[in-house]
Every structure is written in structure tokens, then in C-alpha cells.
Amino acid sequence: MAMPISRRIAAVALxxxxxxxxxxxxxxxxxxxxxIKIIIDTDIGDDIDDAFAVALxxRxxxxxxxxxxxxxxxxxxxxxxxxRLLGETGHSDIPxxxxxxxxxPGGLTQRRYAxxxxxxxxxxxPAVEFILxxxxxxxxxxxxxxxxxxxxxxxxxxxxxxxxxxxxxIVLMGGSVYRGGGDLGYTKPSGPQAEWNIKNDIPSxxxxxxxxxxxxxxxxDSTQLKLDEVKRAILFxxxxxxxxxxxxxxHQWGYExxxxxxxxxxxxxxxxxxxxxxxxxxxxxxxxxxxxxPGVPNxxxxxxxxxxxxxxxxxxxxxxP
Length: 321
Hints:
Elements: H1 5-30, E1 36-42, H2 49-58, E2 63-70, H3 75-88, E3 96-98, H4 111-115, H5 127-137, E4 142-147, H6 151-159, H7 161-164, E5 169-173, H8 196-199, H9 202-209, E6 215-218, H10 220-223, H11 229-236, H12 241-253, H13 263-270, E7 277-284, E8 290-293, E9 299-302, H14 307-319
Parallel strand pairs: 1-2, 1-4, 2-3, 4-5, 5-6, 6-9
Antiparallel strand pairs: 7-8, 7-9
Helix pairs in contact: 2-13, 5-6, 6-9
């Protein structure tokens, strides 16, 4: 006996629904998570702000940290410091790669932390090869967070400029446009200076600003964010594995008030309103000054930020359950 039309329609509808749900399920398994893929290139171990920057990345579910690469000076010791920080906070799955070691001024203030613990890996892949491999795997998707001297960045451009240009962008802590160190914006600007991350590899900085890769620049003008005594007490008393690690690193650093320069790069990625940018043409001169000049913009530059808004965002993120 033939099936009634109404039942046939219902059966067809049910079959189409099952097919649609099956396709939707398969699609859901292949759709990207939407997380922002980042690599953090850092000189962690000198100033303390690098550790605070990595901490923010670790506490941000919006980010997919493809790896941490170390740059400038004793890159292997820096990599071991990153190993321990990641291990003690439950992130040993994040790769750590080391840049080419070289002599550098000063020493690692947090070397004891790097040499302690039991999380140091037997070896670290070369940073430049690691970054290039990740770019090839995820062309047009990776944000490189550059919070150290640009040694690895220059080497990337020298080794494979075509692949380097497949970065989605570079978010850089570096440079000084109108305000130098110690100029917190309360008085007449004292003028720019050659900032640490730029002046310690001027040729690499020049190559970067000529590369055509989108640059988002957080200079001294907007990154002199002082973690004062009250904020430190709130942070260090939290008693989590991450805040305990930051507390230990802070005491090994040996100074009083950290300036969280590097942290603004991650804060900007997570909440661009914290550091509004404007298009500028920036030239790196022979002394390491980042000079704003007429011309086609080659960078988006944040010249000012709201310190109170930044710390509300940062502390809430780090201290959230």
C-alpha cells in the first residue's frame, strides 16, 4: 500500500533534517576556533615586564599561543626560564624555541629562576626556523608579538622575506615618537629617545619598517605603565601558581616598581580600545630613533593610553578564577 502523502513529506523532512545535522556536525569539527594565533618573541629574563606579558597571554582564552621564542643575548637561558614559567603554570605543551645566542650588555636578572625547577627541556629548536614553519602552516593568520630586540625578526627577513610577509601582523613594543623614558605625560614632552628594543638591532628594525608587513607599534609614548605598590600587593597576594611565579621573578629582578611596557602589546591584541592607534610613516634612523615623517603609512602607532583602564583590565584578567 502506498504511503500517504503527508507521511512521505514527513519522512523526507526527517531525512533532510538528519542529513543537515550530520553535515553541521562535520562542519563544526572543522571550523576554526576563532582564536588569535600568536607567537611571542621575547627577551624574557632581563626586565620583568616580559614575564608579566607572557602571564597575560596565558590567562587569555582568546589567544592560541603557537610558541614562545627567545631573542638577544643568552637565548638558551631565556628559553629555560620560559620552560619553567610554562611548566609551573600548567602550560608545558606550548613550544619554546631559542634564537641565536650572542653577547649582549647586562645580565639576566632572573637567571636563578631559569636554572631552578625541573621543567627545562633537553633542547630548543632554532627560533627562526620555528617561526617560519608556523607561518607556512598558518599563512596570513599569525600575529608575531615582538617584545625584545628585533634580532629574530631581522633574521626572518634575511632568510625568507616572502614567507615573513605572510604574517598577519606584528605587534611591537618599541620606539619612541614624542616621549622618552621617564616622560609619563604629566609635563611638557621631553622628546623622543632611541628605545632599547630598536637600538639593540637597528638594521633589523629598519628592515621591519620597510618590509610591508602590517605593524602595530606600542612605543614609550603609551607603554610606561607603573605597577605600583598597591597593585603589586593585590597581585602577589593572590597565591595562584601564576602570581606566585610572578612574585618570585619580581624579587629576583631586584628593583621596586615595574613598568609594564611589553604588556601593552598583548593588552592591545585583546582590547584595542586600551591603546588607540593612528596611521603613521615611521623611519628608523641610524641612531635607532623612530622618526615620524610624511609618506605612505607603514605602521599603526599608539601614542597614548589610559593607565587606569589598562590596569583594571590586566589585574582582573590575571586574578580571575
